[in-house]
Amino acid sequence: MSAANSQRLIDLVSDLLAQGEVSWVEFKHNNSNAEMIATRISAISNSACLSGQSIGYLLWGIDDVSLSIVGTTFDPNSYRVGNQVFALWLAQRLAPSIAFQFHQVDHPLGRVVVLEIPAANAAPVTANGIAYIRIGSATPRLTDYPERYQALLSELRPYAWESGIALQYITADDVLNLLDYAQYFRLTKQPLPDNRAGILERLTADHLIIADVGSKWNITNLGAILFAADLTLFPQAMARKGVRFVSYGGANRAATVKNRQDGKRGYAAGFEGLIAFINGLLPKNEHIGQALRVEHPLFPELAIRELVANALVHQDMTISGAGPQIEMFEDRIEITNPGAPLLAPDRMIDLPPRSRNEAMASLMRRMGLCEEQGSGLDKVIAQAELFQLPAPLFKASDDAFQVILYGPRTFAQMTPDERVRACYQHAVLKFLSGDRMRNASLCARLGIAKQNAAQASQVITLALQQRLIRPADSDHPRSGYVPSWA
């Protein structure tokens, strides 16, 4: 154990003794009754949740009357129940599984054992099938107190990655060196306080940091992933979530790599720089105006911004060793993020988004780095139509989600699937704006000349056969078309 971890545990014991025995902290001397410990874990886990604490504690080596350190002979590492390792025996009796941890502390006043017990999330924690709660020094069944049971159910929340700890037990100076707090105040449009205490107070209010024991601080996963000045200074699991960008000199990954960048800054701190970097590398088309040649990017810059923000916000942060990836080819851009989407790809345009990372999404919206709920992908589709690009492709797998934005192609160069996809997305946009898709509007979308309108009719027929669209009014064939789910 490192010196910093040892000191943190000593400070933790001191803070808990100062706190006293509350519903989520209990002190023992040498009592090592296995069934008692299992029952206490259930009670303390549920009580910690009710009290708004992320962790509860059971400590040995403390006199529970005087709350003085007296030392303990209890050793969880050597303790056995029958022939079974104690920690395994406990894990088999607790449900749902929680990541409890024993720590042995060489405190100057005596040996102390600390059991960290995560607060219940998603469901009450049971021991041998029974949920317990702490009331004073008693540990009754939770179901004997229906009002507390209902209160606990209302407090239960699934685990949120953003609230996890990226770095623990660091000084205030370390916080200010590791986080780009100046960017936080600029993006949130708050005046920068003129003292350190004011800065820490604001970072705490947005759950970017939380106070630890011994006047030290913890940086949360949310704080690190959004505002890290350098992600490589954090544990590897966090550093691997940086955005990776690769551009190729051809149409596939066998082509020469022209540019590669592994993002080191937090998503919010580095977002504007990342978008500017990508836009600077976008292929350009030259358009001749009345007097001047004007270069326009091959891909809409607004669409790139929205898709990158979408990949950051909606990824599954619990997948280790993976982060968002942006790959630029000569004819397309592929943006991939870890985790299967929570919505079916063909309904992402119209349904409100569901995010695994609500705190991150909320803060990024507040800072203007991504769109208000439900409008981001609409803008991407609208930009594709405005630039008369092939319809973007949304691809979902078990462990990733990918969006492909294609460069310009004529109607003749599009595949039948691309034509039908453009037809469906066009029908969705029309419906969301209170309109209906018609043959003429699809011709304009696909760049089909008026005299070739029969080509649009063929695409509509295919979309009808695939049940992606339907007539708006079956009794009036000229009434136009809407999405099949409308």
UniProtKB/TrEMBL annotation:
Residues 21-139 form the Schlafen AlbA-2 domain. It comes from the Bacteria. InterPro entries: RecG_C_sf, Schlafen_AlbA_2_dom, Schlafen_AlbA_2_dom_sf. Gene3D superfamilies: 3.30.565.60, Schlafen, AAA domain. Pfam families: HATPase_c_4 (PF13749), SLFN_AlbA_2 (PF04326). This is Transcriptional regulator. It comes from Neoroseomonas terrae.
